[in-house]
């Protein structure tokens, strides 16, 4: 057994994660073909096995944390390696601990920290930012700038500006009801995590989620005062900011007293399910966090635990379902979204080749590594285009935005929706309601 030296009396999260990974890893290499950054570069340092070796050297004090910053930063955090690993190496945990170690040794620039730790967790700040961006788009300024070719003078900024999704009008940002009663016989009460960017970027997604849950017998609570769940901060190595957000949501959702906590965003759901791990060294919150995480469900997971209630109108659509990494690899959920879509009459469900590959969104990866993200998106779009879908369904807001951008670029005339939005459409048509 390999021993990992630790200078502290209690092992640090990095030492603990590396110790576990090193004692489990049998160096079989099964993770390599499933790792997009390794497959596209052929570089061992861009593979899960290589990154684990680098982290081991840091834990042993043979390398400085900053020496491996680029290798960790280049990782998508998609966790495809975890699904492939026969030895149960928890790469996600290892990556979070490694990035936190790098950030502690070399703090991020203040602007990045302000964006991650101040702006993103502030609903009011995000609304103001979204209003400015909406104004930029609706005023014609965006079109003008793009047509003028000015972005060619700042290509790095221009590449990121091109990713900006169309923001919906502010009047669609209406708050969800605090309580939505169940329709028909009740099955229990759920509390919905609304997310940080979904309320301003994809407000119809939360509305559809509430509607479909209520239609299936769940009373839906939307606790006030929600902020970012902490996933973006944890994945960027800002662990203390992530822990503060976790404690905030623990208190909020405990007070709500629901049977289940529901997320419609794969990345956020995976984070909520890891609050127990995130707060395991906090004596005041460790037990509460573990109990909280045990009550978290992805919306597809809960809905698929029983047949959908009808009536659902037929939707004669070719729907390609693409797995979000943090649902498939992060939460081990593959069948539930497919089971739900198959229950919509006349809907044809299409399987996407390499559906288990990242689309390149990966939190803010597409902003930080636009070239690799673009390669992954192109690959995904080639598979999707061959299927000629009318709808692409995926259960994570970041993936929805990324695939919408890709579909537009490729001239692929397919809507990109969350599976619950497809269900909401089937319920809406059955009730004769006008569709958006
Ligand atoms: S698949 Fe798992 S055990 Fe095999 S090399 Fe990769 S991390 Fe190690
Ligand atoms: S998380 Fe994804 S990109 Fe990172 S090592 Fe694992 S498979 Fe590769």
Q: CATH architecture of the largest domain, please? A: 3-Layer(aba) Sandwich
- As an assembly, this protein is single chain
Strand content: 5-15%
Question: Whole-number average pLDDT?
Answer: 92
Residue ranges: pLDDT <50 for 5 or more in a row? 1-8
Strand order of the largest sheet: 1-3-2-4-5
Bound ligands = iron/sulfur cluster
Estimated helix fraction: 40-55%
Number of domains: 4
Rg, rounded, reads 22 Å
Termini distance? 59 Å
Q: What is the CATH class of the largest domain?
A: Alpha Beta
Query: What is CATH's topology name of the largest domain?
Result: Rossmann fold
Structural class: alpha/beta
Describe the structure concisely for a colleague.
With 436 residues, this protein is α/β, with parallel strands linked by helices. It contains 24 helices and nine strands. The chain has helices spanning 13-24, 36-41, 48-59, 69-73, 80-84, 91-105, 110-119, 123-138, 141-148, 155-161, 198-201, 203-215, 231-235, 239-256, 266-273, 275-278, 286-294, 299-303, 325-331, 335-342, 365-368, 370-387, 397-409, 419-430; strands spanning 179-180, 188-193, 218-221, 260-263, 296-298, 318-321, 348-351, 391-393, 415-417.
